[in-house]
UniProtKB/TrEMBL annotation:
Pfam families: ARM_PUB, U-box. It is an enzyme of class 2 (transferase). Residues 24-98 form the U-box domain. This is U-box domain-containing protein. The keyword Transferase applies. Functions as an E3 ubiquitin ligase. It comes from Dendrobium nobile (Orchid). Keywords: Transferase, Ubl conjugation pathway. GO terms for molecular function: ubiquitin protein ligase activity.
Protein backbone atom coordinates (compact mmCIF):
# COMPACT_ATOMS: atom_id res chain seq x y z
CA UNK A 1 0.00 0.00 0.00
CA UNK A 2 2.76 2.39 0.93
CA UNK A 3 4.52 1.57 -2.36
CA UNK A 4 1.34 2.41 -4.33
CA UNK A 5 0.97 5.75 -2.56
CA UNK A 6 4.59 6.58 -3.35
CA UNK A 7 4.11 5.56 -6.99
CA UNK A 8 0.94 7.68 -7.33
CA UNK A 9 2.76 10.66 -5.88
CA UNK A 10 5.59 10.19 -8.37
CA UNK A 11 3.16 9.96 -11.27
CA UNK A 12 0.68 12.68 -10.40
CA UNK A 13 2.71 15.32 -8.59
CA UNK A 14 5.16 17.47 -10.56
CA UNK A 15 8.57 17.36 -8.97
CA UNK A 16 9.71 20.69 -7.52
CA UNK A 17 12.64 22.45 -9.16
CA UNK A 18 15.93 21.10 -7.94
CA UNK A 19 19.01 23.28 -7.97
CA UNK A 20 22.60 22.11 -7.83
CA UNK A 21 25.05 24.83 -6.79
CA UNK A 22 22.68 27.38 -8.26
CA UNK A 23 22.19 25.51 -11.55
CA UNK A 24 18.81 23.94 -12.26
CA UNK A 25 19.12 20.28 -13.22
CA UNK A 26 17.10 19.38 -16.31
CA UNK A 27 13.99 17.45 -15.39
CA UNK A 28 14.85 14.38 -17.51
CA UNK A 29 18.27 14.12 -15.83
CA UNK A 30 16.68 13.54 -12.42
CA UNK A 31 15.70 10.17 -11.03
CA UNK A 32 11.91 9.97 -10.54
CA UNK A 33 12.49 8.23 -7.19
CA UNK A 34 15.27 10.23 -5.55
CA UNK A 35 14.76 13.47 -7.55
CA UNK A 36 18.55 13.69 -7.66
CA UNK A 37 20.85 13.89 -10.67
CA UNK A 38 21.20 10.36 -12.05
CA UNK A 39 24.73 8.99 -11.97
CA UNK A 40 23.99 5.52 -13.36
CA UNK A 41 20.72 5.71 -15.33
CA UNK A 42 19.08 2.36 -16.12
CA UNK A 43 15.83 1.55 -17.90
CA UNK A 44 13.22 -1.01 -16.81
CA UNK A 45 10.87 -2.96 -19.05
CA UNK A 46 8.22 -0.19 -19.01
CA UNK A 47 10.68 2.19 -20.66
CA UNK A 48 11.07 4.36 -17.57
CA UNK A 49 14.59 5.32 -16.51
CA UNK A 50 15.84 5.54 -12.93
CA UNK A 51 19.14 5.88 -11.12
CA UNK A 52 20.40 2.33 -10.49
CA UNK A 53 20.73 2.58 -6.66
CA UNK A 54 17.21 4.01 -6.38
CA UNK A 55 15.43 1.37 -8.47
CA UNK A 56 17.41 -1.44 -6.88
CA UNK A 57 16.36 -0.17 -3.44
CA UNK A 58 12.76 -0.07 -4.72
CA UNK A 59 13.01 -3.73 -5.73
CA UNK A 60 14.75 -4.66 -2.49
CA UNK A 61 11.73 -3.34 -0.57
CA UNK A 62 9.60 -6.00 -2.26
CA UNK A 63 7.96 -3.78 -4.88
CA UNK A 64 7.14 -5.45 -8.20
CA UNK A 65 5.77 -2.51 -10.17
CA UNK A 66 7.28 0.40 -12.06
CA UNK A 67 7.29 3.37 -9.63
CA UNK A 68 6.06 5.86 -12.24
CA UNK A 69 3.60 3.87 -14.37
CA UNK A 70 2.57 1.42 -11.61
CA UNK A 71 2.57 -1.33 -14.25
CA UNK A 72 3.65 -4.79 -13.07
CA UNK A 73 7.18 -5.65 -14.11
CA UNK A 74 7.62 -9.13 -15.64
CA UNK A 75 11.18 -9.21 -14.32
CA UNK A 76 13.65 -6.97 -12.52
CA UNK A 77 16.09 -6.65 -15.40
CA UNK A 78 17.56 -3.17 -15.81
CA UNK A 79 19.39 -1.98 -18.93
CA UNK A 80 22.05 0.76 -18.74
CA UNK A 81 20.91 3.90 -20.56
CA UNK A 82 24.26 4.84 -22.09
CA UNK A 83 22.83 7.64 -24.24
CA UNK A 84 21.26 9.43 -21.29
CA UNK A 85 24.38 8.94 -19.19
CA UNK A 86 26.53 10.57 -21.89
CA UNK A 87 24.09 13.49 -22.12
CA UNK A 88 24.27 13.95 -18.35
CA UNK A 89 28.07 13.84 -18.46
CA UNK A 90 28.13 16.44 -21.28
CA UNK A 91 25.78 18.67 -19.28
CA UNK A 92 28.05 18.37 -16.23
CA UNK A 93 31.10 19.31 -18.32
CA UNK A 94 29.25 22.29 -19.80
CA UNK A 95 28.49 23.57 -16.30
CA UNK A 96 31.90 22.84 -14.82
CA UNK A 97 32.55 26.56 -14.37
CA UNK A 98 29.48 26.65 -12.09
CA UNK A 99 30.97 24.02 -9.81
CA UNK A 100 29.23 20.98 -11.31
CA UNK A 101 31.43 17.88 -11.21
CA UNK A 102 31.37 15.38 -14.05
CA UNK A 103 29.84 12.05 -12.99
CA UNK A 104 32.21 9.11 -13.48
CA UNK A 105 31.37 6.34 -15.89
CA UNK A 106 30.05 3.53 -13.66
CA UNK A 107 31.37 0.02 -13.88
CA UNK A 108 28.64 -2.20 -15.20
CA UNK A 109 27.79 -5.46 -13.43
CA UNK A 110 29.15 -8.61 -15.00
CA UNK A 111 27.08 -9.76 -17.97
CA UNK A 112 25.66 -13.24 -17.27
CA UNK A 113 26.17 -14.11 -20.92
CA UNK A 114 29.87 -13.32 -20.66
CA UNK A 115 30.11 -15.28 -17.41
CA UNK A 116 28.53 -18.33 -19.05
CA UNK A 117 30.87 -18.06 -22.05
CA UNK A 118 33.93 -17.87 -19.80
CA UNK A 119 32.70 -20.86 -17.81
CA UNK A 120 32.19 -22.84 -21.01
CA UNK A 121 35.73 -21.97 -22.08
CA UNK A 122 37.14 -22.99 -18.70
CA UNK A 123 35.20 -26.28 -18.78
CA UNK A 124 36.00 -27.24 -22.38
CA UNK A 125 38.10 -30.43 -22.34
CA UNK A 126 39.17 -29.85 -25.96
CA UNK A 127 40.48 -26.33 -25.28
CA UNK A 128 44.11 -25.62 -24.50
CA UNK A 129 45.14 -25.59 -20.86
CA UNK A 130 46.32 -22.00 -21.12
CA UNK A 131 42.94 -20.78 -22.46
CA UNK A 132 41.06 -22.65 -19.74
CA UNK A 133 43.23 -21.13 -17.01
CA UNK A 134 42.89 -17.70 -18.62
CA UNK A 135 39.09 -18.04 -18.52
CA UNK A 136 39.22 -18.93 -14.82
CA UNK A 137 41.43 -15.93 -14.13
CA UNK A 138 39.02 -13.69 -16.03
CA UNK A 139 36.11 -15.00 -13.96
CA UNK A 140 38.08 -14.38 -10.80
CA UNK A 141 38.94 -10.84 -11.93
CA UNK A 142 35.27 -10.12 -12.64
CA UNK A 143 34.29 -11.37 -9.20
CA UNK A 144 36.95 -9.15 -7.59
CA UNK A 145 35.59 -5.98 -9.20
CA UNK A 146 32.49 -5.63 -7.06
CA UNK A 147 30.11 -7.45 -4.74
CA UNK A 148 27.48 -7.48 -7.50
CA UNK A 149 29.91 -9.13 -9.87
CA UNK A 150 30.85 -11.68 -7.25
CA UNK A 151 27.19 -12.60 -6.81
CA UNK A 152 26.67 -13.01 -10.56
CA UNK A 153 29.83 -15.06 -11.08
CA UNK A 154 29.11 -17.18 -8.02
CA UNK A 155 25.55 -17.95 -9.12
CA UNK A 156 26.56 -19.26 -12.53
CA UNK A 157 29.94 -20.86 -11.89
CA UNK A 158 30.48 -21.94 -8.27
CA UNK A 159 29.62 -25.66 -8.55
CA UNK A 160 31.42 -26.08 -11.87
CA UNK A 161 34.57 -24.38 -10.59
CA UNK A 162 34.51 -26.57 -7.48
CA UNK A 163 34.49 -29.62 -9.77
CA UNK A 164 37.46 -28.27 -11.74
CA UNK A 165 39.37 -27.73 -8.48
CA UNK A 166 39.64 -31.51 -8.13
CA UNK A 167 40.49 -32.39 -11.70
CA UNK A 168 43.53 -34.29 -12.91
CA UNK A 169 45.55 -31.28 -14.04
CA UNK A 170 47.21 -29.51 -11.11
CA UNK A 171 47.57 -26.15 -12.85
CA UNK A 172 43.88 -26.08 -13.74
CA UNK A 173 42.97 -27.21 -10.22
CA UNK A 174 45.06 -24.40 -8.74
CA UNK A 175 43.37 -21.87 -11.04
CA UNK A 176 39.94 -23.14 -10.00
CA UNK A 177 40.82 -23.05 -6.31
CA UNK A 178 42.10 -19.49 -6.70
CA UNK A 179 38.74 -18.56 -8.22
CA UNK A 180 36.89 -20.22 -5.34
CA UNK A 181 38.82 -18.00 -2.91
CA UNK A 182 36.83 -15.07 -4.35
CA UNK A 183 33.65 -16.71 -5.61
CA UNK A 184 33.08 -18.61 -2.36
CA UNK A 185 31.38 -21.93 -1.75
CA UNK A 186 28.23 -23.27 -0.15
CA UNK A 187 27.64 -26.24 2.11
CA UNK A 188 26.83 -28.27 -1.00
CA UNK A 189 30.29 -27.85 -2.55
CA UNK A 190 32.02 -28.58 0.74
CA UNK A 191 29.91 -31.71 1.27
CA UNK A 192 30.90 -32.96 -2.19
CA UNK A 193 34.53 -32.81 -1.10
CA UNK A 194 34.07 -34.36 2.34
CA UNK A 195 32.16 -37.34 0.91
CA UNK A 196 35.09 -38.48 -1.25
CA UNK A 197 38.37 -39.44 0.47
CA UNK A 198 40.43 -38.79 -2.64
CA UNK A 199 39.14 -35.22 -2.75
CA UNK A 200 39.87 -34.72 0.94
CA UNK A 201 43.46 -35.80 0.23
CA UNK A 202 43.69 -33.34 -2.67
CA UNK A 203 42.24 -30.62 -0.45
CA UNK A 204 44.95 -31.27 2.12
CA UNK A 205 47.59 -30.99 -0.56
CA UNK A 206 46.12 -27.72 -1.81
CA UNK A 207 46.15 -26.21 1.70
CA UNK A 208 49.84 -27.03 1.97
CA UNK A 209 50.62 -25.70 -1.51
CA UNK A 210 53.34 -23.07 -1.18
CA UNK A 211 53.19 -21.79 -4.77
CA UNK A 212 49.78 -20.12 -4.54
CA UNK A 213 48.45 -18.29 -1.50
CA UNK A 214 45.11 -17.73 -3.26
CA UNK A 215 44.65 -21.46 -3.83
CA UNK A 216 45.31 -22.09 -0.15
CA UNK A 217 42.69 -19.49 0.76
CA UNK A 218 40.23 -21.19 -1.59
CA UNK A 219 40.94 -24.55 0.03
CA UNK A 220 40.43 -23.04 3.49
CA UNK A 221 37.11 -21.63 2.25
CA UNK A 222 36.01 -25.15 1.37
CA UNK A 223 36.99 -26.33 4.85
CA UNK A 224 35.00 -23.52 6.43
CA UNK A 225 31.93 -24.70 4.52
CA UNK A 226 31.86 -28.08 6.28
CA UNK A 227 28.61 -28.18 8.23
CA UNK A 228 28.20 -31.72 9.57
CA UNK A 229 30.19 -33.38 12.33
CA UNK A 230 31.02 -36.27 10.00
CA UNK A 231 32.40 -33.95 7.32
CA UNK A 232 34.43 -31.94 9.83
CA UNK A 233 35.89 -35.08 11.38
CA UNK A 234 36.79 -36.59 8.00
CA UNK A 235 38.53 -33.45 6.79
CA UNK A 236 40.23 -32.75 10.12
CA UNK A 237 41.65 -36.27 10.21
CA UNK A 238 43.29 -35.88 6.79
CA UNK A 239 47.03 -35.52 7.04
CA UNK A 240 48.09 -31.91 6.63
CA UNK A 241 44.73 -30.11 6.69
CA UNK A 242 44.91 -28.65 10.20
CA UNK A 243 48.65 -28.04 9.85
CA UNK A 244 48.00 -26.11 6.64
CA UNK A 245 45.34 -23.97 8.28
CA UNK A 246 47.68 -23.22 11.18
CA UNK A 247 50.35 -22.16 8.70
CA UNK A 248 47.89 -19.76 7.07
CA UNK A 249 47.16 -18.19 10.46
CA UNK A 250 50.83 -17.95 11.38
CA UNK A 251 52.33 -16.72 8.13
CA UNK A 252 49.60 -15.42 5.85
CA UNK A 253 48.40 -11.93 5.02
CA UNK A 254 45.14 -10.62 6.50
CA UNK A 255 42.92 -12.55 4.07
CA UNK A 256 44.85 -15.77 4.62
CA UNK A 257 44.70 -15.32 8.40
CA UNK A 258 40.92 -14.89 8.28
CA UNK A 259 40.50 -17.91 6.01
CA UNK A 260 42.71 -20.04 8.24
CA UNK A 261 40.89 -18.89 11.39
CA UNK A 262 37.50 -19.71 9.91
CA UNK A 263 38.67 -23.11 8.75
CA UNK A 264 40.09 -23.96 12.17
CA UNK A 265 36.93 -22.83 13.93
CA UNK A 266 34.80 -25.02 11.68
CA UNK A 267 36.96 -28.09 12.29
CA UNK A 268 37.24 -27.49 16.05
CA UNK A 269 33.47 -27.66 16.37
CA UNK A 270 34.03 -31.41 16.06
CA UNK A 271 35.45 -32.67 19.37
CA UNK A 272 37.65 -35.22 17.62
CA UNK A 273 39.64 -32.44 15.93
CA UNK A 274 40.49 -30.36 18.99
CA UNK A 275 43.33 -32.55 20.21
CA UNK A 276 44.74 -32.63 16.68
CA UNK A 277 44.53 -28.86 16.49
CA UNK A 278 46.37 -28.43 19.79
CA UNK A 279 49.12 -30.78 18.62
CA UNK A 280 49.40 -28.80 15.37
CA UNK A 281 49.95 -25.54 17.27
CA UNK A 282 46.54 -24.02 16.56
CA UNK A 283 46.05 -22.61 20.07
CA UNK A 284 49.29 -20.63 20.01
CA UNK A 285 48.75 -19.46 16.43
CA UNK A 286 45.25 -18.14 17.08
CA UNK A 287 46.11 -16.47 20.39
CA UNK A 288 49.03 -14.62 18.82
CA UNK A 289 46.66 -13.15 16.23
CA UNK A 290 43.89 -12.12 18.62
CA UNK A 291 45.65 -8.92 19.57
CA UNK A 292 45.57 -7.84 15.91
CA UNK A 293 41.89 -8.56 15.31
CA UNK A 294 40.13 -5.60 16.89
CA UNK A 295 39.63 -3.86 13.55
CA UNK A 296 38.44 -6.85 11.54
CA UNK A 297 34.93 -8.10 10.94
CA UNK A 298 33.43 -8.79 14.33
CA UNK A 299 32.50 -12.35 13.39
CA UNK A 300 36.17 -13.19 12.84
CA UNK A 301 37.13 -12.10 16.35
CA UNK A 302 34.22 -14.10 17.76
CA UNK A 303 35.36 -17.22 15.87
CA UNK A 304 38.95 -16.78 17.01
CA UNK A 305 37.97 -16.46 20.68
CA UNK A 306 35.55 -19.37 20.40
CA UNK A 307 38.36 -21.49 18.94
CA UNK A 308 40.64 -20.64 21.87
CA UNK A 309 37.89 -21.48 24.35
CA UNK A 310 37.28 -24.85 22.67
CA UNK A 311 40.98 -25.72 22.58
CA UNK A 312 41.43 -24.80 26.25
CA UNK A 313 39.03 -27.62 27.10
CA UNK A 314 41.29 -30.40 25.81
CA UNK A 315 44.59 -31.73 27.10
CA UNK A 316 47.48 -29.41 26.36
CA UNK A 317 45.29 -26.55 25.16
CA UNK A 318 45.49 -24.42 28.28
CA UNK A 319 49.25 -24.93 28.53
CA UNK A 320 49.67 -23.90 24.91
CA UNK A 321 47.76 -20.65 25.49
CA UNK A 322 49.61 -19.84 28.71
CA UNK A 323 52.92 -20.29 26.91
CA UNK A 324 52.12 -17.33 24.63
CA UNK A 325 53.47 -14.11 26.12
CA UNK A 326 50.72 -11.59 26.80
CA UNK A 327 47.92 -14.11 26.14
CA UNK A 328 45.96 -13.17 29.27
CA UNK A 329 46.15 -9.45 28.52
CA UNK A 330 45.05 -10.05 24.91
CA UNK A 331 42.06 -12.10 26.05
CA UNK A 332 41.06 -9.37 28.50
CA UNK A 333 41.51 -6.71 25.83
CA UNK A 334 39.21 -8.69 23.54
CA UNK A 335 36.40 -8.11 26.05
CA UNK A 336 36.75 -4.32 26.10
CA UNK A 337 35.72 -1.46 23.87
CA UNK A 338 33.29 -2.41 21.14
CA UNK A 339 33.52 -6.14 21.71
CA UNK A 340 30.31 -8.01 20.95
CA UNK A 341 28.54 -10.03 23.61
CA UNK A 342 29.69 -13.27 22.00
CA UNK A 343 33.30 -12.12 21.83
CA UNK A 344 33.23 -11.18 25.52
CA UNK A 345 31.58 -14.48 26.40
CA UNK A 346 34.18 -16.60 24.60
CA UNK A 347 37.03 -14.53 26.05
CA UNK A 348 35.62 -15.04 29.56
CA UNK A 349 35.24 -18.77 28.92
CA UNK A 350 38.83 -19.05 27.76
CA UNK A 351 40.07 -17.08 30.77
CA UNK A 352 38.21 -19.42 33.14
CA UNK A 353 40.38 -22.25 31.85
CA UNK A 354 43.58 -20.24 31.52
CA UNK A 355 43.80 -18.49 34.92
CA UNK A 356 42.26 -21.22 37.05
CA UNK A 357 44.83 -22.64 39.45
CA UNK A 358 47.41 -19.91 38.84
CA UNK A 359 47.55 -16.97 41.25
CA UNK A 360 50.04 -15.17 39.04
CA UNK A 361 47.75 -15.35 36.00
CA UNK A 362 44.77 -14.30 38.11
CA UNK A 363 46.66 -11.23 39.26
CA UNK A 364 47.67 -10.53 35.66
CA UNK A 365 44.04 -10.68 34.54
CA UNK A 366 42.93 -8.35 37.35
CA UNK A 367 45.72 -5.91 36.56
CA UNK A 368 44.59 -5.90 32.91
CA UNK A 369 41.15 -4.66 34.02
CA UNK A 370 39.09 -7.82 33.60
CA UNK A 371 37.01 -7.26 36.77
CA UNK A 372 35.40 -4.09 35.42
CA UNK A 373 34.50 -5.85 32.18
CA UNK A 374 33.04 -8.82 34.02
CA UNK A 375 30.89 -6.61 36.25
CA UNK A 376 29.61 -4.83 33.17
CA UNK A 377 28.76 -8.18 31.59
CA UNK A 378 26.86 -9.38 34.64
CA UNK A 379 24.80 -6.19 34.80
CA UNK A 380 24.28 -5.67 31.07
CA UNK A 381 21.47 -8.10 30.43
CA UNK A 382 23.64 -10.50 28.46
CA UNK A 383 22.66 -14.10 27.80
CA UNK A 384 22.44 -16.57 30.69
CA UNK A 385 25.41 -18.48 29.30
CA UNK A 386 27.59 -15.37 29.11
CA UNK A 387 26.53 -14.33 32.61
CA UNK A 388 27.42 -17.74 34.05
CA UNK A 389 30.89 -17.59 32.54
CA UNK A 390 31.43 -14.06 33.87
CA UNK A 391 30.28 -15.07 37.36
CA UNK A 392 32.49 -18.17 37.33
CA UNK A 393 35.51 -16.07 36.39
CA UNK A 394 34.71 -13.52 39.09
CA UNK A 395 34.69 -16.30 41.68
CA UNK A 396 38.05 -17.57 40.47
CA UNK A 397 39.52 -14.06 40.61
CA UNK A 398 38.12 -13.13 44.03
CA UNK A 399 41.36 -13.86 45.95
CA UNK A 400 43.27 -11.56 43.57
CA UNK A 401 40.64 -8.83 43.59
CA UNK A 402 42.00 -5.79 45.54
CA UNK A 403 38.50 -4.45 46.19
CA UNK A 404 37.04 -7.74 47.40
CA UNK A 405 36.43 -6.39 50.92
CA UNK A 406 33.97 -3.86 49.55
CA UNK A 407 31.79 -6.73 48.42
CA UNK A 408 32.37 -9.02 51.40
CA UNK A 409 28.74 -8.81 52.44
CA UNK A 410 27.25 -8.99 48.95
CA UNK A 411 27.23 -11.86 46.52
CA UNK A 412 25.14 -10.02 43.94
CA UNK A 413 27.83 -10.19 41.31
CA UNK A 414 28.87 -13.76 42.01
CA UNK A 415 25.54 -15.56 41.85
CA UNK A 416 22.76 -15.64 39.26
CA UNK A 417 20.02 -13.09 39.71
Amino acid sequence: MRGEVRARRLRDTPAPPLDLVGVQIPYHFRCPISLELMRDPVTVSTGQTYDRPSIESWFAMGNTTCPVTRCPLPDFTVIPNHTLRRLIQEWCVAHRSDGVERIPTPKQPADPTLVRLLLAQASADDASLSSRIAALRRLRALACESEKNRAVVSTYTRSAIAEMAFGADLDLAVGAMEALAVVGVTERESAMVAARPERVALLAGMIRLESSAEARIGAATLVEGMRTAEAREAVGAADGVIEGLVALVENGDSRAVRAGMRGLFSLCLAKENRGRAVMAGAAEAVVRRIGEMHCVERGDLERALATVELLCRVEGGREAVVAVEGAVADLVRAMTGKATERAAEHAAGALVAVVGGSEALQEEAVAAGVVTQLLLMVQSGCSDRARRKAQMLLKILRPAWPMQDLFANSDDFLHPF
